Amino acid sequence: MLKRSTGEKVFNVVNIFFFIIFTCMMLLPIVYVLKQSFEVGIGGSLNLSLLPAKFSGLYYQMVVKEESVYRPFLNSVYITIVGTSSSLLVNAIGAYTLSKRELPGSKAFIYFLVIFPMLFGGGLIPTYLLMRALGLIDRYAVLIIPAMASGWNMILIRNYYWSIPDSLAESARIDGAEEFTVFFRIILPLAKPVLAAIALFTGVGFWNTFMAAIIYIRSPQKYTFPVKLREMILIQATSMKDAQMWEAMLMAMGFDPAQTAVTADGLSSAMMIVSMLPIILIYPYLQKHFAAGIMVGSIKG
Amino acid sequence: MAKVVVKNVYKKYEPSRGGITAVSDFNLSIEDKEFLVLLGPSGCGKTTTLRMIAGLEDITAGEIYIGDKLVNDVQPKDRDIAMVFQNYALYPHMTVFDNMAFGLKLRKTPKDEIKKRVHEAARVLEIEHLLDRTPKALSGGQRQRVALGRAIVREPKVFLMDEPLSNLDAKLRGQMRVELTKLHQRLQTTIIYVTHDQVEAMTMGTRIVCMRFGFIQQVDNPQVMYDYPANIYVAGFIGTPQMNFADASIKEEGKDAFVVIGNSKIKLPENRAKNIVGKGFDGKAVVIGIRPEALHDEQVYIDSMPDSTVSAKVEVVEMLGPEALIYCVIEGFNMIARFKPNTKARHGDIIKVAMDTERLHIFDKDTEKAMFRD
Predict the structure, then answer these.
(1) B58 touches chain A (CB under 8 A)
(2) What is the rounded distance in angstroms from the CA atom of residue B159 to the CA atom of residue A267?
(3) Secondary structure (3-state) at B109
(4) What is the rounded distance in angstroms from the CA atom of residue A252 to the CA atom of residue A250?
(5) Does any CB of chain A come closer than 8 Å to the CB of residue B143?
(6) Which residues pair with B333 in a beta bridge?
(7) Interchain CB distance below 8 Å, B89 and A165
(8) Is the Cβ pair B89, A168 closer than 8 Å?
(9) Which architecture does CATH list for A58-292?
(10) What is the predicted ipTM?
(11) CA closest to A165 among chain B residues
(12) What are the extents of the domains in chain A?
C-alpha cells in the first residue's frame, strides 16, 4: 500500500465529498419526478418525501391508454428511428467520399458546404420560408430531412476512416471487390465505434426534437413527445382555460374530475420518465461499441 | 501462371508540378513460374513498381502485360493477381475462414468449392485449427500465414508480395523464408517479391532486380549478382558484411597489369591483364572492391599469392563462432576480412593479408560501373 501524504488525503476527501453532492444534484430531481409519477391522491399539497405516500401505476396506465399522449411518443420513436438511420447512412457515405484525398474539389466541398454551414445558418425565418417552399410544413419529413446531413459528423467519420489502413481497401479491391463492396463490407463494419457514438448523439437529437416541431408542426397528432410533454407541464391549475382542458382530458379517459385525485403534475412526471427510458435502455448497448480496439489484429503484430 | 512484361514504365507523382519520378524507364520480362525479387533500399521505387503491376497505382507512361494481355487500364480485381501486404491487411472483423474466403465469395465460387479450397490452403499452411478465430487472436507468424492463405486460395496467375516478412522476428523470418521457397516450388506460380533485405533476395529469388532511385541497377540471378555486381552500388548492397572498397589506379608494366592502392602494387592475373594492357587504361583512377572472404591470412595463401599480399593493421576482431571478422586498415582504407576462427590476428597486430585477385572487382571511378567484367 502506497503511503499518501496529508495533502493527497485531504484532496481525496474533498473530491469524494464534492462529487457526492454533485451526483445528488443530478439525481435528486430525477428521483423526485420518479416518485411523483407513482404517487396518486395527495392532491395539491406539497410532499418533498422521496417515497410516494400512496403508490399507484395509474399515470403510466394513462400514458399507455390515452392517444393524445402515446401518439406523440410513437411519433418520436418513428422520427428517431428513421432519422437516425438515414442520417447515419448519408453521413457515412458522404464521409467516405470526402476521405478520398485525391478527389478533385474535396477541399472546396468541405470548406463551403460543410464547415461554412457549421458556423453560419440562414436564420429562422428564411429557413421557415424554405421549408414552406419545399412543401414540408406539418410533415414528419421536416423533422428529419434538414437534420440528416451533418458536417460535423461527416468530418468525425471521415477522420475515423483515415485511421483505417489503405491496404485493407486495396486488399479487398484485389480480392475482387467493387467500391460499394469495399465500403459496405470492409469500411463500414470497421467504423462501428464512431458510427455507434454518432448514432447515439443523433438519436438523442431526434428523440428530443422540440424546436423544429414547435415551428413546423401544426397538427397535434403529429406532435413529438417533447412538445406534448411541454404542453402537459404548462397546464396550470390556476388558469381557467387549462383547467377546463385538463377536465376534458380526464373525462375523455373515463375519470370523474370531481372525484379523482389525479394531477397534471403526476401525468407529466410519468411522461418525463417515459421520455428518458429509451435513451437509458439503449445507451449501455451502444456503449460497448465505443470501446476502441476493433482494429487490433488487422495489421502487423 | 503467366509471364509479366513491364515495358518502359514510368511513375511520376504530381507530374503537373514537376513532380517526383519514383520509377524511371523500367523494363523487365518476368518469366512464368519465376520467383523474382525487387531489391533496394526504401524509396527506390520497388514497392511502387509492384503496386503498378497490381493496378493500385496508375502508371505515368509505359505498358504492363500480364499473360499476353495489356493491363494498363484493367482494374486490380480483373488482373487475376493476389497480393500479400507488408502489414498483412487482414480484415479484422472477419474470421480467418472468412478472410480467406472473401475473394472467392466475391467471385461467386460455389460454397463447397470455397470450403474445399480454404481447407486445402489452411492445411498446407498449418492453420486449419485457426479458421474460426479473428486476426486479433493470432500471433504475427499466424497472421502472415493467413495473409498467404488468402492469396493462395484464389489461385491467381501472379503473386505479388510486398515485404511480407519484414514484421516478423528474425527467427520466424528465417522459417518463413524456407516455407515461401517450398510454397513456390509447390504452387509453380509466378511470384514477384519486394524486399529491402538482401538475404531474403539471395535465398529466395530465382532472379533479383536491384533498384536505386527508381532505376534498375542490375537484373541477374543471385549468385551472378554476388560474383559480378554491375556497379559499386550493387556491389555494396549485396552481401554482409559488405564489400570492401578502396581508391586505386591501374598500372601497366610490359604484359602485366597492376592495381595500385597507396604504396601496394597488386598484380592482376593474366586472363584479366590481357583485357587491360595496351588499351589506354594506364594510370586510370578506379575503385577496387573485394569481398571479406576474398581476403586471406593463412600462410598457404600468402605463399601462393606473393604479388597480391599487403599488410594490414588489425583494429577489432569479432569472433562469431564459425568465422572471425577482422576489422583492419589496409593502405589507409578500412576493410573487413572474414577469416577462419583459428586466426591468430589480434587487436593491434600488423598482419599479412593475401587478396584473391580472381575475385577483385574493378569499378570506373567516374561512372561507378564495373570494368573488365569477363
Answers:
(1) no
(2) 70
(3) coil
(4) 5
(5) yes
(6) B330
(7) yes
(8) yes
(9) Orthogonal Bundle (1.10)
(10) 0.81
(11) B89
(12) 58-292
Residues of A in contact with B54 (CB under 8 A): 170, 174
Q: Is the peptide bond before B241 cis (omega within 30 degrees of 0)?
A: yes
B13 and chain A in contact, CB less than 8 A: no
**pLDDT tens, residue order, chain A (301 aa):** 677 888 889 999 999 999 999 999 999 999 988 988 888 765 555 667 777 777 888 888 888 888 888 899 999 999 999 999 999 999 999 999 989 888 888 888 888 877 888 788 888 899 999 999 999 999 999 999 998 988 888 888 998 899 888 899 999 999 888 889 999 999 999 888 888 888 888 999 999 999 999 999 999 889 999 998 888 888 765 666 777 777 777 777 777 666 666 777 788 888 999 999 888 888 888 777 665 544 444 444 3
Q: Which amino acid is at B182?
A: K
Residues ≥6 apart with Cβ < 8 Å to B77: A173, A174, A175, A176, A177, A178, B106
Asked whether the CA dihedral A293, A297, A300, B1 is positive or negative, the reply is: negative
Look up residue B95 and give its amino acid.
T
Side-chain-side CA neighbours of B158 within 13 Å: the count stands at: 28
Please report, to the nearest 10 degrees, the dihedral formed by the alpha carbons of residues B218, B219, B220, B223 taken in order.
50
CB contact under 8 A, B106 and A175: yes
Handedness of CA B198, B200, B201, B202 (dihedral sign): positive
What is the C-alpha separation between A75 and A66, in angstroms, rounded? 14
Tell me the residue length of chain B.
Answer: 374
Q: Using a CB-CB distance cutoff of 8 angstroms, which residues of chain A are in contact with residue B90?
A: 297-299
Angle at B358 between CA B355 and CA B359, to 5 degrees: 70
Q: Contact, B70 vs B147, CB < 8 A?
A: no
Whether the CB-CB separation of B202 and B238 falls below 8 Å is answered with: yes
Q: Which of A172, A185, A295 sits opposite B92 (nearest CB)?
A: A295
CB within 8 Å of chain A, chain B residues 225-284: none
Chain B environment of A301 (Cβ under 8 Å): 138-140, 143, 167
